[in-house]
Specification:
The chain has 457 residues and is mostly helical. The chain is built from 24 helices and 4 strands. It folds into 3 domains: 1-84 and 169-202, Up-down Bundle (Transcription Elongation Factor S-II, Chain A), CATH 1.20.930.80; 91-164, no CATH class; 223-405, no CATH class. It has helices at 2-11, 17-29, 36-39, 42-59, 63-83, 86-95, 105-118, 124-129, 141-145, 160-190, 196-202, 225-231, 235-247, 252-265, 269-280, 287-301, 316-321, 334-337, 340-349, 354-365, 369-381, 393-404, 411-425, 429-452, and strands spanning 101-102, 132-136, 150-152, 155-159. A hairpin with a 2-residue loop joins strand 3 and strand 4 (155-159). The protein is elongated, with a radius of gyration of 26 Å. Bound molecules: iron/sulfur cluster. Iron/sulfur cluster binds at residues 234-236, 316, 319-320, 333-335, 369-370, 373, 393, 396. Iron/sulfur cluster binds next to helix 13, helix 17, helix 18, helix 21 and helix 22. Its cofactor is [4Fe-4S] cluster.
């Protein structure tokens, strides 16, 4: 749900009607009980509260996570608050101890002239239509400082359209404090072995298709990879491919990220061995060293060695949230981990138009890395709206291929990934969230084993 809120908040102006219509439609699609208060649905509200508090635990763990969570919760609250009826809004304000009282029609008519003169942007007709709230000055400092409200006897008379800002600011302050407090009590919670894996993975869990079922296996040839890297690879993989071709080597973070991605797009084990070997022996690694030091780890990632786990390619969240690259590394997400100036230069060298680069950098500045990647997809594929929410580098590849081939070649994969994506988007709430997360947890634990095999740089 919060991901959808983020998506729409970036693509639309938050106050306009199309934003509200679209968000309403998306929340209904996800079966999010945003009208639970109006419908007096106790069970739905209970689930909503539980999921909110679990997310607090998961998202209090770093400054980045806290900021992201706060922003999306603010936007969601603003929307829900504005959807309430007048009486429910009043009930809500009382419930959260915000003693703002809607003024009576009589008082409003009496003060109509003053309200009209002191409230910029409201015509007399609007003054008559809008509800006004009597708010203590301490809660309306910003408004009276900006001379946007009528003041009388120590109270500001705030129109409904400004009340949501006071409510959300109040909520932001409370939630921010609560997240800081929760973060402080994390060590004791993390010692609980039932909660710890869930919390570690929830903030970057991925519940879409894992791209481990390679219906496409063996359908691509090694000769195609250079062309694919330019047309259909997301920036992270394009960067890794270029670094590999330039340096004939990748350090272990890069080999993991890129190797599993290539496996996901359809490289067989034999092809992977040939691909990496050919490139590495062009550099400082001879064939013997490759066979001894690197071939094992590639077979391992295909589930042919060790615990025989068939490893799955990394999702965007995993790439963005874990194992940041250090100097000499090329893995990670360029939208998250590159210096903005370097990112700009890279995009310029890939012939992205200046206006597109500005849009991408704006999204990056707002920490919307996957949306920046979606914009990159749109610009490199010349489409206005990609029509899907990007969560996985292999999804990027599949969608790109579908578009470039007119929807023919990868149809089968797409229909299955599409379904799973829907599954990912549908709010099956905590149950569906926790199942894949725990399976991710197992996979991650096993991956740690695999990483040990990649120690040689
Ligand atoms: Fe790669 Fe995802 Fe970052 Fe795009 S958003 S560059 S697919 S990690």
């Amino acid at each position: 749900v919060l991901k959808v809120v983020e998506n729409l908040g970036v693509s639309y102006v938050r106050s306009n009607e199309s934003y509200k219509t679209k968000l309403g439609a998306e929340l209904r699609k996800l079966k999010f009980p945003y009208k639970a208060l109006a419908e007096d649905d106790y069970e739905a509200r209970r689930k909503d509260h539980i999921s909110h508090f679990i997310l607090r635990l998961a998202y209090c763990q770093s400054e980045d996570l806290r900021r992201w969570f706060l922003q999306q919760e603010m936007d969601l609250l603003r929307y829900r608050f504005n959807e309430l009826t007048d009486s429910l809004r009043q009930k809500f304000l009382e419930h959260v101890n915000l003693s703002f009282e809607a003024i009576s029609e009589d008082l409003k008519n009496e003060l109509a002239n003053e309200l009209y003169m002191s409230t910029p942007g409201l015509s007399m007709t609007k003054v008559k239509e809008q509800m006004f709230y009597k708010v203590g000055l301490a809660d309306a400092v910003d408004l009276f400082r900006a001379r946007r409200v009528f003041i009388k006897d120590g109270f500001a008379y705030v129109p409904l359209k400004e009340i949501d800002a006071i409510v959300t600011n109040n909520y932001r302050a409370k939630l921010s404090k609560a997240l800081a407090l929760t973060a402080r009590s994390l060590p004791s919670i993390q010692s609980d072995e039932r909660l710890q894996p869930l919390l570690n993975h929830l903030s970057h869990s991925y519940i879409g298709p894992d791209y481990s079922v390679q219906k496409n296996t063996g359908k691509i040839s090694l000769e195609q990879i250079d062309a694919f890297s330019m047309k259909s690879f997301p920036l992270c993989m394009r960067q890794l491919h270029k670094a590999l071709r330039d340096n004939h080597h990748l350090r272990h973070g890069g080999r993991m990220q890129y190797g599993l991605f290539l496996k996901g797009i359809g490289l067989t084990l034999e092809q992977a061995l040939e691909f990496w070997k050919k490139e590495f022996i062009r550099g400082k690694v001879d064939a013997d060293k490759f066979d001894k030091g690197y071939a094992y780890s590639i077979r391992h990632s295909y589930g042919k060695e060790g615990r025989r786990t068939d490893y799955t390619p990394y999702s965007c969240m995993k790439i963005i949230m874990s194992n940041p690259p250090s100097q000499g590394d090329y893995h990670g997400c360029p939208f998250r981990h590159s210096d903005p100036e370097l990112l700009k230069q890279k995009l310029q060298s890939y012939k992205i138009p200046p206006s597109g680069i500005t849009q991408i950098l704006e999204l990056v500045k707002g920490m919307h890395y996957q949306l920046a990647c979606q914009k990159y997809f749109e610009l490199t594929h010349d489409v206005d709206d990609i029509g899907f929410s990007l969560n996985h580098p292999n999804q990027y590849f599949v969608e790109s291929q579908r578009l470039l081939s007119g929807g023919r070649e990868l149809k089968k994969e797409l229909s299955s990934s599409g379904n799973s994506q829907q599954k990912c988007n549908s709010q099956e709430s905590m149950n569906s969230n926790s199942t894949p997360t725990s399976s991710n947890t197992t996979a991650d634990a096993e991956l740690e084993g695999l990483e040990a095999y990649f120690t040689e740089d």
